[in-house]
Design goal:
With 261 residues, the protein is an all-beta fold. Helices cover 0% and strands 72% of the residues. The strands form two sheets. A twelve-stranded parallel β-sheet has the order 1-3-5-7-9-11-13-15-17-19-21-23, with no helix packed on it. An eleven-stranded parallel β-sheet has the order 2-4-6-8-10-12-14-16-18-20-22, with no helix packed on it.
């Protein structure tokens, strides 16, 4: 069998390093562009038809990508100083688009997919300094994340199928934690504007449940737990300062709405 692969590497200035390992791989495409000092890209892949486009501008930005599978796409654009990206995609048909701009932003992403029916999809944009995200997805999950500001933290863990999570953090010192496990067709939307909000959203063994948390102002806390049920809905909106809201739902067809202004 004849294998084809394409590698393009472009480095300028001082001590920029791009490393690539391909094992039993065919028709893979890798483009790595680096400008600045002490930038490093490491890519390890086995499989077919994978695509990597890595661009790093600045100082001491690092990207580590490991892929074992086929038809995976990873687009990574980093500018600034001391940004780090670690990506592991296992099996097939996963997609990541990541854009980081600032100082000392940290990203760790794991994805496991299987085929066109189990495609994981992540789009993340981080602008600012000292922000952190960590996303773990298994099959057919979608995540859209935006961080704009400093010292924001977002952690997403989706295990199951057809689960969707949208997180928007604008301002400083926000924390969001999402955990969707062993369910399907669940959705979580979190929007944090202002400063120092905490949003926690958990769904366990659920089907077609939905959580929406909207926080503006400062120092608001929201927590939602949905367990062992279907068609539950929890909506929290906080528009002033120092509010706290906690919702727990089990069984099915429950609706909870909390407005704090």
């Amino acid at each position: 069998m004849q294998h084809k692969f394409k590698i393009s590497i472009y480095c300028t200035f001082f001590v920029s390093i791009a490393s690539l390992w391909q094992l039993y791989a065919g028709n893979n495409k890798t483009n790595s562009n680096q400008e600045g000092e002490n930038n490093k890209t490491t890519i390890s892949q086995s499989g077919d038809n994978n695509q990597h486009d890595i661009t790093q501008f600045g100082i001491s930005n690092h990207s580590i990508i490991q892929v074992t599978g086929s038809n995976n796409i990873e687009l990574n654009y980093q500018t600034g100083h001391s940004n780090n990206t670690d990506v592991l995609q296992v099996n097939d048909d996963n997609y990541i688009s990541l854009n980081q701009n600032g100082i000392s932003n940290q990203t760790t992403i794991h994805q496991v997919g299987d085929n066109s029916l189990n495609t994981n999809h992540i789009e993340a944009t981080i602008t600012g300094n000292f922000n952190a995200i960590s996303i773990v997805q298994l099959g057919a999950n979608h995540n859209y994340l935006t961080q704009s500001g400093d010292f924001n933290i977002a952690s997403v863990n989706q295990i199951g199928s057809n689960q969707k999570c949208n997180i928007e953090q604008k301002g400083d010192h926000h924390q969001s934690l999402v955990d969707q496990s062993n369910g399907s067709f669940n959705g979580i939307d979190i929007s944090q504007l202002g400063s120092s909000h905490i949003a926690l959203a958990f769904q366990l063994n659920t089907i077609s449940n939905y959580i929406s948390i909207i926080q503006s102002g400062s120092n608001n806390f929201s927590s939602v737990h949905q367990m062992n049920g279907t068609n539950n809905e929890a909506l929290i909106q906080q528009g002033s300062n120092n509010n706290s809201a906690i919702i727990n739902q089990s069984s099915s067809n429950n609706t909870s709405i909390v407005n704090q202004f």
